[in-house]
Amino acid sequence: MNYIAINKEAWDQRTKVHVGSKFYDVDAFINGKSSLNKVEVEQVGNVEGKTLLHLQCHFGQDTLSWARQGANVTGVDFSTEAINQARKLNSTLGLDATFIVNDIYQFGNENTEGFDLVFTSYGVLCWLPDLSHWAKIIANSLVLGGEFHLVEFHTFNDLLTGYAYFPRAEPDVEEEGTYTENCNGEKSTMLTWPHSISEVISALIAAGLTIESFKEYPYSPYKCFDDLDYVEYQGYQLLHKGQQVPLLYSIKARKVT
């Protein structure tokens, strides 16, 4: 089963829906709204003049938001439709971002450039069957002293909804719609893999990166799951037996050797 071809087709279809959604609000983005959230902005910090590689960049809003903050950005995604839309946005905004159509494993095998920062966020890891390879790509893409930043949905929520927490070789195969408000009931076949937080951290350490921070958060900036309640000035939370469920986590790692 060619998981890349199956998931690529699904994300090509999703992108067509996403660019017209209120969730992504492309018009507001063009008019100056940043797509970045407080968590990643505070963690990554000042990007002025730095080279930044954004893996699994979708149609480029976060990539271009970093460019607006002064970074020299490169975005990579396997969806041809997403990269086409990213390039259109780049042109519309008069920015100088580079966008590459490729799955990140193949990109990593071919890339010879070093970056100050590698960034990836929100719903990215479940599409990857091999985190050891992923982590090596990140390490190989960083210059000495360079930083990796991950902000990801916490897998504890997946466990509560019946998905596996611990990694396994075989993917979950499902027919799913997209998470924006305008999906119109359309579904696509998708293959995903569970990854525990310990697997993520261990893969990065094995690749030679030094973990500088690991944080967990009880709030999500997005209402992407069922039963989330909005808390003013914080975001969305999920309570289980009256207690907050961790919804996000972030990792900062550095290449020191």
Low-confidence stretches: none
Strand arrangement across the biggest beta sheet = 3-2-1-4-5-13-8
Largest sheet data: 7 strands, mixed
Determine the strand fraction and express it as a percent band.
25-35%
Instruction: Give the CATH topology.
Output: Rossmann fold
Q: State the CATH superfamily name.
A: Vaccinia Virus protein VP39
What is the count of helical runs?
A: 9
What is the helix fraction of residues, given as a range? Answer: 25-40%
Roughly how many Å is the radius of gyration? 17 Å
Assembly type of the chains comes to single chain
Can you walk me through this structure?
The chain has 257 residues and is an alpha/beta fold. The protein is built from 9 helices and 13 strands. It has a 7-stranded mixed beta sheet with strand order 3-2-1-4-5-13-8, with helices on both faces. Strand 11 and strand 12 (243-244) form a beta hairpin. The model has no long low-confidence stretch (mean pLDDT 96).
List the SSEs and their pairings.
Elements: H1 3-18, H2 26-30, H3 38-44, E1 51-55, H4 61-68, E2 72-77, H5 80-93, E3 98-101, H6 104-110, E4 115-121, H7 131-141, E5 142-153, H8 156-160, E6 172-176, E7 188-192, H9 197-206, E8 209-217, E9 229-231, E10 235-237, E11 239-240, E12 243-244, E13 248-255
Parallel strand pairs: 1-2, 1-4, 2-3, 4-5
Antiparallel strand pairs: 5-13, 6-7, 8-13, 9-10, 11-12
List keywords for this structure.
32% helix, 257 residues, Rossmann fold, alpha/beta, single chain, 7-stranded mixed β-sheet, 9 helices
Outline:
Helices cover 32% and strands 28% of the residues. With 257 residues, it is α/β, with parallel strands linked by helices. A seven-stranded mixed beta sheet has the order 3-2-1-4-5-13-8, sandwiched between helices. It has a two-stranded antiparallel sheet with strand order 6-7. Strands 9-10 form a two-stranded antiparallel sheet.
